[in-house]
Amino acid sequence: MTGTAADRPSYALAAELDRLLGDPADPDGPFGFARTVAHEEAGELPPGAVDLVRSWGFARYLVPEAFGGGLRNLEQLVLLTRPLARRNLTVSVMFGSALLGVNPVWLWGDEEQRARVAEGMLGGALACFAVSEPDHGSDLGTNTTRAVADGEGYRLTGEKWPVGNATRGRFVTVYAAVENAGSSLLLLDKEQADPAEFENHPFVRTVGLRGHDLSGIVLKGTRVPADALLGRPGAGLTAVLTVLQITRTAIGALSLGTMDSVLRIALRHARERVLYGEEIYRIPVIRRHLVRAHLDLLVAECTTLPVARSLSLVPSRLSLWSSVVKYLVPTLGEEVVQECGRVLGARGYLREGVAGGAFQKLQRDHAIASIFEGTTHVNLHAIASQLPAVARVADRPQPGGEEVLRRLFDRSEEAPVWEPSGRALRLTNAAEDEITRGFEPAAARAREIAARDLPSGVGGALAKVLDELGSRRAAFYTRLAAQAPDAATTEAQDTAVEHCLHHAAASCLYTWLHGGGAERATVRGAGWLVLVLQRLLQRLDPTAELDESLLPWLEELMFARLDGPEHFSLDAVLAAARD
């Protein structure tokens, strides 16, 4: 590996890793689909796969620069995880579980804790986040694991299960009730612990992610020193709720990688499979599945990356925004998988054949994205509980909001370096939501650009879809401001879903306004925005249609990128618009 994180743009690093991992269609590569599927049948990781990722230095990007690693910001990690996830989600989740395990150390650890964990992670160690218990799951208010004072330290007693990396992980962040203090986080370093005082459960047999260490740990009076505490005693519940905001956002990368792979597999099959005398892509319903899938991927990208940036720019917003990403992006990913599965038909059910049988593995693996770090319902409840405050100020400009939006969505500059601080994360947004509050001023600016610079066809289509979305948005937040449903109701879950769609529409609009260049005023450069907004409108109004006049260019782009190294991504769309 050449260069450092400090002097290499994140997109360049991601492209370098993508090249190293190789073509998934290569049967001999460690990340080739055929080889991955073959070893997954035995519940194993492909030989050499993890070693290749480690030799490149991926572990450096789990350790912030401030503590001697290469991690500059969360956007960088999302970009690096995406190419890994499009080949093998199991390997991606292994490193993701490690990130979750050490983030409490970066946020609340002391100098010695951070230095020791950073040294271990850079040396190849893994970590885990031991929170769930067999009888209580994610009920964080019921914590039966105990930390009892013993001399100058504590004795940990209890059982944590299921936990990613519980067996392979050296560092264990344990959620335990400290005597006379309440639930807290403590750091267990297995290398410093008595092996007789803890034991690991066998790996759990899972539908997907076969070969991943999903196991558990039994703490049998495990001694840890007094300085094992992470942060303030009794602040464990708050710490868990806030640290999850980071990994909830990062999970978007798993879905983006999956969407890229299943779309590529389905597109290639649609071009190669001939029925009734022509390739099946010419069948209208097949074409519709694939076009929608591509647009959903663009929506997911426009939604994920700015929220990842917010950890460095406005971390207090993550309490709401991370749940939006965690609900919407995996949900879009699931739908893309389903759309592509319909294209593959029976071949999507096979464990061999098309793409070495990788589709069924991708389908099974991606199912976890909606489950861990809070299920779909948990995240919708988190959104719904904050919506009344957001709705009351939905049409009031937020002071400094335009500059925040520019920095979140301007792709021409790197996100600022993340300076980890637990105090920067909050449990609620307190109605601070530049993304949804800034929609109307941004839409007005877009209408001006459309009238001044765009041909009447695409300009009129953009103005029309903005008007329709704006009308629905205004009615939605006005209704919520007047009377919001109880967050625990199904009605509130539905309102949270609609909020996510308005958030996504605004994100796509800001990406066009701040993230592009001269191509913004071209048919192609604005056409992608019209299509993604129309796709989002379809989710609010099933009678809405995509503009057929804009689709041929998008389809041409999809097939042009099919056999190349580029992701199906907004970067590819913008590059093509400049040609």
What does this structure look like?
With 579 residues, the chain is an alpha+beta fold. It has 3 domains: 10-122, Butyryl-Coa Dehydrogenase, subunit A, domain 1 (Orthogonal Bundle), CATH 1.10.540.10; 127-230, Butyryl-CoA Dehydrogenase, subunit A, domain 2 (Beta Barrel), CATH 2.40.110.10; 239-578, Butyryl-CoA Dehydrogenase, subunit A, domain 3. It is 54% helix and 10% strand. The chain has 19 helices and 10 strands. It has helices spanning 10-21, 33-40, 49-56, 74-85, 89-108, 111-122, 236-272, 284-313, 318-344, 358-366, 376-392, 401-409, 434-437, 439-453, 456-482, 490-515, 523-540, 551-560, 570-578; strands at residues 127-130, 146-150, 153-164, 171-178, 182-189, 198-200, 214-225, 229-230, 274-275, 278-279. The strands form 2 sheets. Strands 1, 2, 3, 4, 5, 6, 7 and 8 form an 8-stranded mixed beta sheet that branches. A hairpin with a 2-residue loop joins strand 2 and strand 3. The model is unreliable at 1-5 (pLDDT under 50).
